[in-house]
Amino acid sequence: MSQLKTLYALPVALLLAGALAGCATSGKCESGGCSADAKITTNVQTMFDRHAELGPPNLIRVQTRDSVVYLSGIVSAGEFSDVAESVANEVPGVTRIVNTISISR
């Protein structure tokens, strides 16, 4: 009986993951939200280009969803993560920053 539950758990989990992803993509994209998010991402990346300290060897990835900017990647020192967050926060249209940038050691 336990093996039967395990056998069905994976397909159910995959089905739910697909359904939730579909829910996440509906909404603002239909009313122009996705183009606004793309513009915010481009503007954040442009601002990063103006800050040499955020360039190599640092690798920062920027994604925007519903005007929330997600920063990820690796930087060589903690202050660069703080600078990236501060710079992204200056871009018009950004409502919140989620910073998961790691520090290389």
Summarize the structure in words.
With 105 residues, the chain is α/β, with parallel strands linked by helices. The protein has a domain at 32-103: Histidine-containing Protein, Chain: A (2-Layer Sandwich). It has helices spanning 2-25, 33-49, 78-89; strands spanning 59-65, 68-75, 96-99, 102-103. Strands 1, 2, 3 and 4 form a four-stranded mixed beta sheet that branches. The termini are far apart.
Strand coverage percent: 15-25%
C-alpha Rg, in Å? 18 Å
Q: SS-based structural class?
A: alpha/beta
The overall pLDDT, averaged over residues, is 81
CATH C-level category of the domain at 32-103: Alpha Beta
Low-pLDDT runs: 12-16, 19-26
* Overall outline: globular
Number of strands: 4
Q: What oligomerization state is this entry in?
A: single chain
- Distance from first to last alpha carbon: 48 Å
What is the level-2 CATH architecture name of the domain at 32-103? 2-Layer Sandwich
- Write the H/E string, N to C: HHEEHEE
Helix content: 40-55%
Question: How is the topology of this model organized?
Answer:
Elements: H1 2-25, H2 33-49, E1 59-65, E2 68-75, H3 78-89, E3 96-99, E4 102-103
Parallel strand pairs: 2-3, 2-4
Antiparallel strand pairs: 1-2
What key attributes describe this structure?
alpha/beta, Histidine-containing Protein, Chain: A, globular, 105 residues, four-stranded mixed sheet
Question: What's the gist of this structure?
Answer:
Helix content is 50%, strand content 20%. Strand 1 and strand 2 (68-75) form a beta hairpin. It has helices spanning 2-25, 33-49, 78-89, and strands spanning 59-65, 68-75, 96-99, 102-103.
